[in-house]
Specification:
54% helix; alpha+beta; 415 residues; three-stranded antiparallel sheet; 4 domains; single chain
Length: 415
């Protein structure tokens, strides 16, 4: 708000300086000598004098192009030839006298100054009204939005987004309110998941205690030589193995629960063109090129109608491209398109530092990171989420190592 107030002050000052300059110019113009302004009439008289000397009668002269000379009169002996009250010059041409009447530029009156000041005042009033309108309907609501965003960043999700009744920021207010609702919903879901996770862990820890105690007792009995019969020892060992299998089953349940807790965005199946998807990708990375100097090259392709969720498809391709830029060493990623059996295959190829063939089957596992990720930030969830999203859209994603490059392919069903 302070910055806008400074801007308004600067605009007002500049406008007042402009108004003062206009007034000074008009006043200075009013004080000019009218005679000096009318010296151009002599040039016109000289031109007309030449035309008369060449034989053109005074009555046939074309005065439409003259700005100062208004009349040319030949002396015919009348008494009104000499008019002391008018501005004129007498010239003798071919033995005859001619009177050239002219009008000098009159100094502007104070009425001109009044008109200028009135126009300036009206313009200034309109400018002030526009600035006040912007302040009320744009700047103040934006300030309220800023405060609401600050409250969101602090985790205060109970209070709705405020922006007055500004119709100019309606979409922004609506978007922030949706974000607040989404954050509130995610917070509630996370609390429920935390509660379920703790309940599950407590239940599993209780269930694990029983087989664990049995294993410990059996192991203690074996180590102390309690069982001398070999058949009994084998039976006890099999019991230990069975209890270990039971504990392993519980651990798989814990691992599966941890994977299921990863939140996957909702998918809304619609239809969109491939050009719309790749067009948004191209615009996004062209804007980033000047900053990061990373290049995304999209090869030529034939447009096709795709079934899926456009926003989620953009998320998937951006994730694949970001992975290629992060873990590759070429500084660029190539995107190409193939069509096979009513499917559109979007290939994202990155160069250098590929994963090994033995690691390739695990790249889509949750929380898994390859040997080439050392020293790079990441959670190991990006490709896992991509696969979940693609399968929700009835598609798929897979990876392949080709020489010194990695190609990750997103398979979209055609509409």
């Amino acid at each position: 708000m302070k910055a806008y107030n400074r801007f308004v002050a600067i605009v007002v000052i500049l406008f007042l300086v402009f108004a003062a300059g206009v007034n000074l110019f008009v006043v200075f113009d009013m004080r000019k000598d009218p005679a000096e302004e009318g010296r151009f009439y002599r040039v016109e008289i000289s031109r007309l004098e030449q035309e008369i000397a060449s034989g053109t009668p005074a009555s046939d002269l074309d005065l439409s192009s003259c700005e100062n000379v208004t009349e040319v009169t030949e002396d015919e002996g009348g008494e009104d030839f000499f008019k002391p009250s008018s501005d004129y010059e007498i010239r003798e041409i071919n033995g005859k006298l001619y009177r050239f009447s002219f009008g000098t530029k009159q100094a502007p009156s104070y009425r001109v100054l009044l008109i200028c000041d009135t126009v300036i005042a009206v313009t200034f009033l309109i400018l002030i009204l526009v600035l006040l309108f912007i302040r009320k309907h744009v700047i103040l609501p934006m300030d309220e939005l800023g405060k609401s965003a600050e409250e969101l960043s602090k985790g205060n999700l109970q209070e709705g987004v405020k922006a007055g009744k500004s119709k100019y920021l309606g979409r922004m207010v609506w978007g922030l309110d949706l974000l607040r609702d989404k954050l509130e919903s995610d917070r509630k879901r996370n609390r429920e998941l935390e509660k379920e996770e703790k309940t599950l862990l407590l239940s599993l820890s209780h269930d694990i205690k029983t087989p664990l105690s049995a294993i410990k007792l059996s192991a203690k009995a074996l180590s102390s030589g309690l069982y001398e019969d070999e058949e009994k020892k084998i039976k006890v060992a099999e019991g230990i193995n069975a209890k270990a299998d039971e504990i392993e089953r519980y651990m798989k349940e814990i691992t599966g629960t941890a994977r299921d807790d990863v939140q996957i965005p909702d998918v809304k199946i619609t239809e969109f063109y491939l050009s719309e998807l790749l067009g948004k990708i191209k615009v996004y990375y062209e804007g980033r090129y000047e900053v990061t100097k990373t290049k995304v090259v999209i090869s030529e392709y034939a447009d096709v109608l795709i079934s899926g969720d456009l926003d989620r498809a953009i998320e998937v391709l951006q994730n694949l491209i970001e992975n290629g830029l992060k873990y590759g060493t070429g500084g660029s990623v190539d995107v190409s398109v193939l069509r096979e059996e009513n499917c559109c295959l979007v290939n994202v190829r990155s160069f250098g530092n590929p994963v090994s063939s033995s690691e390739l089957p695990h790249v889509f596992d949750s929380f898994w990171r390859g040997s080439n990720s050392s020293g790079r930030e990441g959670s190991g969830l990006g490709l896992y989420i991509c696969r979940r999203l693609m399968r929700k859209m009835s598609g798929d994603v897979y990876a392949d190592v080709k020489g010194e490059s990695v190609v990750v392919t997103a398979v979209f069903p055609e509409a």
